[in-house]
């Protein structure tokens, strides 16, 4: 009922727009759909090596019965969705990508309502909705690559919206679902500690997160998969690769992966120190938590953690890619932020997306150039993080001009 009302509210809002805006919006919508239709047939290395194999395994073993074995290193919640999609009589590559494409629109709708909290009587929230759909990393991630990062990101956006509307229990519920889909949901976790420090949330709410995760693994457990195996999925994922960075545009682009043993633990400690400084700043200062502060904190959190943590993949800035859209609508002077993030993420995507298209020598030659570009982009992201952090310390809220809410009517 709540979702139905939100969709009706969105449609009503669209109907009130002026013709010129309606034309622009329809063109953007049509473009986003056509781009997705064009990209769907592509099969990435991940699609061939993992997603299609998981799909086939589930279908071959009769849906739910497949979950008694560990055939995937993904969390069960995504695999349940994959199992449901096997019952739809459409080609498997379309079925797999359709999951993420649906959540492209869920994320866009969440962004619409977050931005609408600021621009209540403006067309701007609709443009925010469309910005998500035409954001290159969004459609490349879902429609070209077939990845599911948009799913957990959608629930992170719903978490942020719930916090901004003082629905704290719902926020932890949405976050628990996000975490049950992907470990990378942890990138937003520091905001809960800050809210706890400011006595905005109760410590009991934190128990909602593991409860949701345990509930999510029950079907697998009942199917026969060992409970300890299900509880340790994320720890096993973390041990999969011993590299400082896997094409992520972060600080470890400056360091060879050969130094993994030397920098791995210090990298984690350093990240905790930076996060701790953020906690201390809020503990020592009387900063009122409002919607703008929540947006700023969310942006910093999903930027800082993947930038300074080791073992990050190229897709681990995806939440930052999407949340930056919300951030820039709240703080338009940072219009460059999503652009830099999208370019950096796309550069990191290239090695994986072209892996099957080139021979080994050609691939290594291209990879060398890509890694050089990633180094430059990682320095750019570091400058942005420093800029955002300094600005946030000086002014925790976005500086808003008097007429900013009526930029477009």
Tally of distinct domains: 1
Label the structural class.
Answer: mainly alpha
Radius of gyration: 21 Å
Order of helices and strands: HHHHHHHHHHHHHEHHEHHH
Q: Tell me about the biggest sheet? A: 2 strands, parallel
Query: How large a portion of the residues is in β-strands, by DSSP E?
Result: under 5%
Number of helices: 18
Number of E-type strands: 2
What is the helix fraction of residues, given as a range?
55-70%
Distance between the termini: 30 Å
Strand order of the largest sheet: 1-2
Per the principal axes of the C-alpha atoms, what is the gross shape? globular
Summarize the structure in words.
The structure is a single chain. This protein has about 400 residues and is mainly α. The protein has one domain (about 1-400). It is built from 18 helices and two strands. It has helices at about 1-15, 20-40, 45-60, 75-85, 90-115, 125-135, 135-145, 150-165, 170-180, 190-195, 210-225, 225-230, 235-240, 260-285, 290-310, 320-330, 335-355, 360-395; strands at about 245, 310-315. The protein has a two-stranded parallel ribbon. Helix 2 (about 20-40) runs parallel beside helix 7 (about 135-145), helix 5 (about 90-115) packs parallel to helix 16 and helix 9 (about 170-180) packs across helix 11. The radius of gyration is 21 Å and the shape is globular.
